[in-house]
Amino acid sequence: xxxxxxxxxxxxxxxxxxxxxxxxxxxxxxxxxxxxxxxxxxxxxxxxxxxxxxxxxxxxxxxxxxxxxxxxxxxxxxxxxxxxxxxxxxxxxxxxxxxxxxxxxxxxxxxxxxxxxxxxxxxxxxxxxxxxxxxxxxxxxxxxxxxxxxxxxxxxxxxxxxxxxxxxxxxxxxxxxxxxxxxxxxxxxxxxxxxxxxxxxxxxxxxxxxxxxxxxxxxxxxxxxxxxxxxxxxxxxxxxxxxxxxxxxxxxxxxxxxxxxxxxxxxxxxxxxxxxxxxxxxxxxxxxxxxxxxxxxxxxxxxxxxxxxxxxxxxxxxxxxxxxxxxxxxxxxxxxxxxxxxxxxxxxxxxxxxxxxxxxxxxxxxxxxxxxxxxxxxxxxxxxxxxxxxxxxxxxxxxxxxxxxxxxxxxxxxxxxxxxxxxxxxxxxxxxxxxxxxxxxxxxxxxxxxxxxxxxxxxxxxxxxxxxxxxxxxxxxxxxxxxxxxxxxxxxxxxxxxxxxxxxxxxxxxxxxxxxxxxxxxxxxxxxxxxxxxxxxxxxxxxxxxxxxxxxxxxxxxxxxxxxxxxxxxxxxxxxxxxxxxxxxxxxxxxxxxxxxxxxxxxxxxxxxxxxxxxxxxxxxxxxxxxxxxxxxxxxxxxxxxxxxxxxxxxxxxxxxxxxxxxxxxxxxxxxxxxxxxxxxxx
Length: 683
Known about the structure:
The chain is built from 18 helices and 41 strands. It is an alpha+beta fold. Helix 4 (about 110-115) packs antiparallel against helix 5 and helix 12 packs antiparallel against helix 13. It starts with a strand and ends with a helix.
């Protein structure tokens, strides 16, 4: 614990402010974090106010608030980034405090200042601290002056070959947006331009900078909480090394690296975090992030002047309600007692609407079913050996392209790290999330991977272990899933068919021919050929590795088989008319019904590049007739606040360009046609 003796300018601190009563809180955010803040407000008897865009009108956070104010529009720049509209909403709804959540305006000093100027309580640090720490450039200098280890800032125009690779990074914001790894000098200019554009879209600030990129390491961060009376708590550390695109996937507390090296590293980290907070006269919840190596050396990365996405793991190991402490500190109350320490272990997995095997492409559509089994607490600390769920969606939620693709956070709490990992993996394996492709199987495979279980996994985990390879043997065997789907679909067809003359359609007095049903999984296709004779299931071909299959029962929703003497039950759900989802204790599989499924790219002309997701064309780099090389970027799509490159699949000529910058496109839209040299010669 640290006590801050002086203010930023070195003068004696003013008299501690008198407590301010908070009665109604507006959350200037959406989804899961809005629901999280509302949960604590409800326990304290505080009124809650939501804001929502057109796309979020049916969001659970809107329904849960005591009142809600509409922000017309869909994009963040029209809605959740409009500080003036949010302050007006607070005043109209009678709120006396504003909680920014994370992302959007949570680290915008001008917004914090405007909230306070409007006579509202800002549930966050002072705008001066946000301003300093919000600038990655200025914050690094301030940390260096305070004796906190930092990486040297590099001028993009003066980078040398010897300094490669480098990381281009947005000065404002975080969450992996506005970040690019550059490995050649020729890439620097384009990376700076692209990162700047993405940062402007996500945070409203295009400023970027460069620093040396460390190929591997452990992302370790310290949760701090500071009051207006000079007390700073360092509430243990978290490790967030499993990341994709510099955005965290799995987080835990305490850090396995720190546990392995020992208390000396922990004390150095906590001391550095306290010093960082003290250097800017910090108040409220914040996180000081470091990159550490296997020997225990570490460097300051940034300070997030807000509540972190992964704050639940700290709550689970300290027993604290961090949102509650934010409310207390904002109201002027003091932190009392000894600095809390950690007990047990907690791991959080972020459930994303994305396809890890397809370069992490974000997914959109309707969530027909979201079912996480065995949840002991929602937005609260579960009992030991308990699962917590912080979710922003529900059955029927629409997932669009304008916001972050995170659907929910599933958090385990257990006495030991291995127990926490295995219990979380088991919960995710039994989860049912239908309608949109998610990273569920990747989370399970990651949690059970030997590198993770040993605590050795670092920031290169998904570079060393390709997501497609990690999930290749996870989940349900697609052949068994297709068999269960075929038998359930047959039962469904029978239930929907009228009985004619007392005999069900499909009844035969002669031996039936094998019936066929076809399903697609990824790029492959599976055919199930079966027949029932005297109540016994016969298959034209057994699934690989299976010697015997006996059908015990089949309904449209469940199929029970005895496979090589072992009873297995499969839950079957239909999503629309094109998709069948099969779940089991061994995992799940999503199947497409072949006769009804049409891949948009299959209808596109030869050489066509189609939009992998709905989005907005932010830049086009080529013109019709241009000669391009394989892998050369042709255009950039923005979806879910991140840019996605559409590149030439092979060398050739851009025969047709179907879009321009600013166009909104649907998934499957033809963007461009590239004719290869062979195709040109054939013409």
